[in-house]
Amino acid sequence: MTYALTFFVALAIATIATPVSMKLAGRWGAIAYPGGRHIHTRQIPCLGGLAIYAAFWSAALIMQVWDKSYAMDALSKMQIWGLFLGSTIILVVGIWDDILGLRPLVKLFWQIIAAAVLIGFDFSMNMISLPFMEQSINFQTLGLGAIGVLLMLFWVVGLVNTVNVSDGLDGLAAGICFIVALLLFWSANRIGQLPAANLTLALAGALLGFLFFNFPPARVFMGDSGSMFLG
Hints:
two-stranded antiparallel sheet; 3% strand; 4 strands; globular
């Protein structure tokens, strides 16, 4: 029941918030114009990422307040705050880029800052598993915790740019991330990680609500604010 509510709350909010983001895009000048490498033939608002962000975090907050069984330990609560702060930084940078345009190195700098925020809130890659190896490599056990931190930084920045680059066709990046969110939900639910499962379903619902407007022919693009946030 909790899972279904999380999904549909995010879906409903995204369905409402996406048209609002389209109006804001027109007001703020976050518009993708035809020509150049763009194949669309009309002006398209590109601030859909704001709607995805709003739907995701609103659904997460509503479920946290409404569902008393949605309990988290102190570490999980701290990491949620880190995720919120890091994603907010990357959203603001994305909106800035969608409106004014930013140089790649400036975007990379802020991506590193956002990733560093996650690390500061105790996100790290302490263990990796490699194919054909029976045991995982635990950096903490080996006294190589700094390697886990660097891998986390590389992983976050890499994913941000991977999703950003994939956002080239109507519905492509949002569709891929929707499928990934469902797979992450399945994995989190299988190992009993309720907070993570709810967050991934909130993301899936937000993406589906956005996709109603982003399927070809798209009426709105997610822009860098959306693609970097999803990464």
